[in-house]
Design brief:
The protein has one domain (26-177): 3-Layer(aba) Sandwich (Rossmann fold), CATH 3.40.50. The chain is built from eight helices and three strands, in the order ααβαβααβααα. By secondary structure, it is mainly alpha-helical. β1, α3 (34-48) and β2 form a beta-alpha-beta unit. A three-stranded parallel sheet has the order 2-1-3. 38% of the residues are buried. Helices cover 43% and strands 10% of the residues.
């Protein structure tokens, strides 16, 4: 796993490496449901761990459908029901430069993982791409974050609950390997 193999880059001291936060990018299709929810929930878990100076996050989509849009109102409502605020996110599209700007790229499903891997040019870039399901609890029935876009309120609430647990596990994993 990429987190286990993260080492200092040549010429950097341990102090230099730790002076910038570990950067995580969450990715889904349109960046209006799953990935912004993952970003919001992850940031809450980072704050709960007191790791805001050590870990940073962003999110994006593989498609350009919703560039500049705020998250889906149904996802915002599900997050609010769970006690989380939106934070002003606006959708953007994944770009090749993200491979250089982020330490970990976390697609929400297999289709988006494949799309990102097709853009990767090196083995190091590919190693940064780890699906969200890696941090699902053992009792999770899902094998990827389901897309709630075409469903009802319950689907959005389910995604929030699933991502709450997964993002907390991811923060713990990063803290253990940083």
């Amino acid at each position: 796993m990429y987190l286990n193999s993260r080492n200092s880059c040549g010429g950097q001291s341990e102090t230099d490496e730790n002076s910038h936060p570990f950067r995580v990018l969450f990715v889904c299709l349109g960046n209006i449901c799953r990935s912004p929810a993952a970003e919001i929930l992850f940031n809450a878990a980072v704050a709960k761990a007191g790791a805001q100076k050590r870990i940073a996050a962003d999110s994006c989509g593989t498609a350009s459908y919703h560039i500049g849009s705020k998250p889906d109102s149904r996802m915002l409502a599900a997050l609010q029901r769970a006690g989380y605020d939106w934070g002003g996110h606006r959708a953007r599209q994944f770009r090749r430069a993200d491979f250089e700007q982020f330490d970990l790229i976390v697609p929400q499903d297999e289709s988006n993982r494949e799309d990102i891997l097709r853009l990767a040019r090196t083995a190091e870039q590919k190693a940064k791409v780890i699906p969200m399901c890696r941090w699902f609890p053992a009792d999770a029935a899902d094998r990827e974050v389901p897309d709630p876009y075409y469903g009802g309120e319950a689907g959005f609430d389910h995604v929030v609950r699933l991502l709450e647990r997964a993002t907390e596990a991811l923060v713990q994993d990063i803290e253990q390997h940083r």
